[in-house]
């Protein structure tokens, strides 16, 4: 809630997931139309008998959306981006399940592009190419040819990625024109929010990543299996951001599933109770929520309007020794103990260089180390040191032994939070995103989709 989202029109909370998630195909068109007609009760008997052998929910990976064709190649090329991020570790069965999720995302993308065109919202090819070039610049040093070659090598294509860019730009531009001008946030609302932030100073807030998969009643088991496979692949080294962009059905997919900084009260109860127990870097899921399943990744957590000690800038000296080839574990342990004793005899950072030279150790100095950039296991112990104190030795027979000595520390300043204008912009974004969910839901309801 404190951080300001500079990526306009991307949903920041999980509120309203159920209404967004279950529209496509859930119990026929009656549920969707109930959004614009009087609500009615859907009656399903306990003893359901299915007439006929055809399952209308078994979909092949091709579809025609209001006349626009999505081919199996389109799906394969999008799927290839995730496969590449995971070193192609997915089995054929896993790929088959995830391909259906990609198809659903491509259907939404087609609806967004179609709606933008119908409203005379244009995104030129030059703009798409420019955005594509920026992606190439970040990954390949401004070399679009290298980017093209990479995409083709992994089984994707430049056209597939540019289509995704077109979809995101078209949708955001449409929202900016058709929804943003009609969103109002009063000064009183902003001032009240600022007061609540001040009142909650010191309470914890969380930066959470999400992957949401809609689960209609007749495919809930399959979607759960899908989500479980995604969790397993991420735990084995897959990219959470890549999975979120390609498979999540929340609008945060556009930013890799990042919800930004939020408080637990902003999450549905099923998720807040889980997030409360998570530690940074932890992945949890699938978690059942109304309409589907969620996968949560805790990126970080901090205290509202409070300086985070991990933002301290440290001055460190690393003293290290290596072991000769053939050193046994017992010999290494003895030398490490002698090494630690010698370094303890040093009287702070002013004399440690001379002590290290006397025992043949190497010293590396760095006075611009952010505590949060260090491995989590040593962050807290290091922040508890006073200048001249050291951490216990760490290392291995192969890599040698190292000791970190703290030489100084610049503590961070307290965060005053967003100013009035920043907070108003954030609140406007949140309201735009809620309208966007309803907009996309209605497009799904009215779409003519043929599966081949």
Automatic annotation (TrEMBL):
The keyword Isomerase applies. PROSITE patterns: PPIC_PPIASE_2. One of its GO terms (molecular function) is peptidyl-prolyl cis-trans isomerase activity. Keywords: Isomerase, Rotamase, Signal. InterPro entries: OMP_Chaperone_SurA (IPR050280), PPIase_dom_sf (IPR046357), PPIase_PpiC (IPR000297), Trigger_fact/SurA_dom_sf (IPR027304). Pfam families: Rotamase, SurA_N_3. Coiled coil: none annotated. Residues 203-300 form the PpiC domain. Residues 1-34 form the signal peptide. This is Parvulin-like PPIase. It comes from Novosphingobium organovorum.
């Amino acid at each position: 809630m404190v951080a300001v989202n500079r990526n306009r029109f991307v949903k920041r909370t999980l509120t309203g997931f159920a209404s967004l998630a279950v529209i496509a195909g859930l119990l026929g068109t009656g549920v969707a139309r109930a959004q614009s007609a009087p609500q009615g009760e859907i009656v399903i008997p306990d003893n359901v008998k299915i007439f006929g052998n055809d399952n209308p929910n078994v979909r092949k990976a091709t579809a025609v959306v209001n006349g626009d064709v999505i081919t199996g190649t389109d799906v394969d090329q999008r799927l290839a981006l995730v496969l590449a991020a995971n070193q192609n570790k997915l089995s054929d069965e896993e790929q088959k399940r995830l391909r259906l999720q990609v198809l659903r995302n491509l259907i939404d993308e087609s609806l967004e592009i179609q709606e933008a065109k119908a409203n005379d919202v244009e995104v030129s090819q030059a703009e798409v190419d420019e955005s594509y070039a920026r992606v190439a610049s970040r990954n390949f040093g401004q070399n679009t040819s290298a980017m093209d070659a990479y995409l083709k090598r992994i089984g994707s294509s430049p056209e597939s990625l540019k289509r995704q860019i077109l979809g995101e730009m078209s949708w955001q531009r449409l929202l900016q024109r058709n929804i943003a001008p009609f969103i109002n946030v009063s000064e009183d609302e902003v001032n009240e929010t600022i007061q609540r932030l001040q009142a909650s100073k010191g309470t914890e807030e969380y930066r959470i990543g999400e992957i949401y998969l809609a689960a209609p009643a007749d495919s809930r088991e399959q979607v759960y299996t899908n989500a479980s496979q995604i969790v397993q692949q991420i735990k084995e080294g897959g990219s959470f951001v890549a999975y979120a962009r390609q498979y999540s059905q929340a609008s945060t997919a556009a930013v890799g599933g990042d919800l930004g900084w939020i408080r637990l009260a902003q999450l549905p109860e099923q998720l807040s109770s889980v997030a409360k127990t998570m530690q940074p870097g932890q992945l949890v899921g699938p978690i059942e929520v109304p309409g589907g399943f969620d996968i949560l990744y805790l990126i970080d957590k901090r205290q509202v309007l409070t300086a985070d000690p991990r933002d301290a800038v440290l001055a460190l000296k690393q003293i290290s020794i290596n072991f000769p080839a053939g050193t046994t574990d017992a010999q290494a342990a003895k030398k490490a103990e002698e090494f630690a004793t010698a370094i303890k005899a040093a009287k702070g950072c002013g004399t440690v260089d001379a002590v290290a030279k006397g025992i043949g150790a190497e010293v590396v100095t760095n006075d611009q180390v952010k505590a949060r950039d260090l491995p989590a296991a040593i962050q807290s112990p290091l922040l508890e040191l006073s200048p001249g104190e050291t951490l216990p030795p760490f290392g291995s027979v192969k890599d040698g032994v190292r000791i970190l000595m703290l030489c100084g520390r610049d503590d961070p300043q307290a965060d005053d939070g967003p100013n009035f204008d920043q907070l108003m912009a954030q609140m406007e974004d949140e309201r735009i995103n809620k309208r966007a969910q309803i907009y996309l839901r209605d497009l799904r309801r009215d779409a003519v989709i043929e599966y081949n």
